[in-house]
């Protein structure tokens, strides 16, 4: 899995904290806002809103930090929805 994130904001930090706490196999990619990385067609294909965090799991992408936390928690069988 791959997480597109931006280090300093709470919505991003809580997802990274969860990943590190559970030592999940998720590659962390810091987006570069200065280079308008979230405005590219490639990124907008992952999240049409152009915001981070975005989790990519195979050909599935998910945005909204709380949705990502729920998805990861389900993967760990911490919760069942
Ligand atoms: N409700 C969303 C908020 C996402 C969000 O606003 N992300 C900000 C950083 S915390 C962002 O990507 N801003 C860039 C932009 O709006 O262009 C979540 O919890 O993931």
* Bound small-molecule species: glutathione
Major sheet details: 4 strands, mixed
Judged by helices, strands and strand pairing, the structural class is alpha+beta
C-alpha end-to-end distance: 21 Å
SSE sequence, one letter per element = EHEHEEH
CATH superfamily: Glutaredoxin
CATH topology: Glutaredoxin
Which percent range describes the beta-strand content? Answer: 15-25%
CATH class placement: Alpha Beta
Rough outline: globular
| DSSP summary, beta strand count | 4
| CATH architecture annotation | 3-Layer(aba) Sandwich
What would you report as the Rg, rounded to the nearest angstrom?
A: 12 Å
Strand arrangement within the widest β-sheet reads 2-1-3-4
Taking pLDDT < 50 over at least 5 consecutive residues as the criterion, the unreliable ranges are: none
Report the average pLDDT across residues: 96
Number of helical regions: 3
Helix content: 25-40%
Number of domain modules: 1
Describe this protein's structure.
The chain is α+β, with helices and mostly antiparallel strands and 81 residues long. It is built from 3 helices and 4 strands. It has a 4-stranded mixed β-sheet with strand order 2-1-3-4, with helices on one face. β3 and β4 form a beta hairpin. The model has no long low-confidence stretch (mean pLDDT 96). Bound molecules: glutathione. Residues 6, 9, 11-12, 38, 50-53, 64-65 line the site of glutathione.
